[in-house]
Specification:
Length: 420
């Protein structure tokens, strides 16, 4: 079985377990066990050399009972159908958990964006968007950034979509994509939202144990959009970020790294490797560090049966999607490690994407302070409900989060009924 097939099987197993816990109606269970729509598009892209290359893109629409399909677009060499299926499933449960009027979707293209120039990437985004055609739309399916994509690409995606609309529709259709640059209708606070949301979820968890973040140590894997903003927020909240890892290597400084300096260094040098005033460490050493908190904010399946026994952190925040395999999660649960599951920990991104969509719909612009306060309150509300489920069901935080989402989905299906 491929690693992405395993990932999708694990995503489905989480859904099944929650369905079992709440004795979900078998019809609803069957619907939620797989995606509603699966789209594969093949499209030509011209390289700067003049040659054409055929690329394959995916959009998986898992469920839309709560509202339009919603989810990121990933550009990474590992993207395939099963990976995107798993990510789309998680989006349905994430949106339900944080009570957004959105369903779940995900998409992507199997390329390493570092191997494409800016002009080539623009052609990839525009041609992919064009190929998706009417399969995305501001009230139907709304993409956003994910690994390997960013605000600038969302701008190209929006522009391509708007050019296929009549002039009278264009202004209103800007919300077809979220995570856009602020000048194009993006929300203040969207770029930082996923990392900040993860930090707020950790603060809530510490609060449950009457513990302060101040002076506790944290190691963060991934220093892109999510990891860098999680690092900035956690150091703002008083934590010492003592280690950071990215695709190029890992670094460690016992008394804490200067995160603002590290962000600048990483932007200028394409990664954290080589940062002065820190010692390089291996990936194995990174995961085995004696820190209070570990924040995986890069890829799936980073904490596995292979390395879980080396982990010494007592608290883990799944800022990435699916960073802990099911086998490793069982070991961590057994060992009493508190894990904030991905559908809660990284929900900040889609929460502020929803705020962007509302601001576009109402031609409004909320202040950064307003966005951040709403984000924090929404994450904390979900944390409260997950904590309550956890106690009443005597289960893991992950199971509690899935149950909390599944109950809403079950209620909505039972109120609406299943057509015909
Ligand atoms: P990004 O492309 O901005 O950054 C990815 C980071 O991971 C980079 O620092 C890269 O060097 C690092 N990385 C890649 N491969 C690695 C490896 N093998 N070992 C160590 N580090 C590695 O991506 P992002 O948007 O920050 O997304 C990170 C994770 O967060 C993904 O799982 C994504 O699905 C999830 N997520 C992102 C958002 C969002 O708003 N961007 C929202 C929800 C969830």
């Amino acid at each position: 079985m491929t690693s992405s097939a395993k990932l999708f099987r694990e995503a489905t197993a989480n859904v099944e377990a929650a369905a079992h816990s709440i004795a979900m109606d078998p019809k609803v269970r069957a619907i939620l066990s797989g995606p509603m729509n699966e789209l594969i598009v093949n499209f030509p892209v011209q390289r700067d050399s003049g040659d054409y290359e055929m690329l394959q893109g995916y959009r998986i629409q898992h469920n839309n009972i709560l509202g339009p399909y919603k989810g990121g677009m990933r550009f990474h060499a590992s993207v395939d159908l099963d990976e995107v299926r798993a990510l789309a499933t998680w989006m349905t449960f994430k949106c339900a958990l944080v009570r957004l009027p959105f369903g779940g979707a995900k998409g992507g293209v199997a390329i390493d964006p570092h191997n494409f120039s800016d002009t080539e990437l623009e052609r990839v985004v525009r041609r992919f968007t064009h190929s998706l055609g009417e399969n995305i739309g501001p009230e139907f399916d709304i993409p956003a950034p994910d690994m390997g994509t960013d605000a600038r690409m969302m701008g190209w995606m929006m522009d391509t979509y708007l050019n296929s609309r009549g002039p009278g529709e264009r202004q209103n259709a800007r919300r077809v994509v979220t995570g856009k640059p602020v000048e194009l209708g993006g929300s203040l606070g969207r770029a930082a939202a996923t990392g900040r949301g993860a930090a707020y979820a950790l603060r809530h968890l510490y609060g449950e144990f009457d513990r302060s973040l101040d002076g506790d140590t944290v190691a963060i894997q991934g220093f892109g959009n999510v990891g860098s903003h999680a690092a900035l927020t956690l150091s703002e909240l008083g934590m010492d970020v003592v280690a950071v890892a990215d695709v190029g290597g890992a670094i460690h400084h016992e008394t804490g790294l200067d995160i603002e300096k590290l962000v600048r260094f990483s932007q200028e040098n394409g990664g954290v490797a080589g940062y002065p005033n820190a010692e390089p460490i291996s990936t194995e050493e990174f995961f085995a560090l004696d820190v209070d908190v570990l924040v995986p904010a890069a890829l799936e399946a980073q904490i596995t049966a292979h390395n879980v026994d080396s982990i010494r952190a007592r608290w883990i925040v799944e800022a990435a999607n699916g960073p802990i395999t099911a086998e490793a999660a069982a070991v961590l649960d057994h060992g009493g490690v508190e894990v904030i599951p991905d559908i809660l920990a990284n929900s900040g991104g889609v929460i502020v994407s929803y705020y962007e969509w509302v601001q576009n719909k109402t031609s409004d612009q909320w202040s950064a302070v307003d966005v951040d306060r709403r984000l924090r309150d929404t994450v904390w509300d979900a944390c409260d409900r997950v904590a309550a489920q956890r106690v009443s069901r005597a289960c893991s935080r992950r199971q509690a989060a899935y149950i909390e989402a599944a109950e809403l989905l079950q209620t909505v299906y039972s109120l609406r009924g299943i057509f015909p």
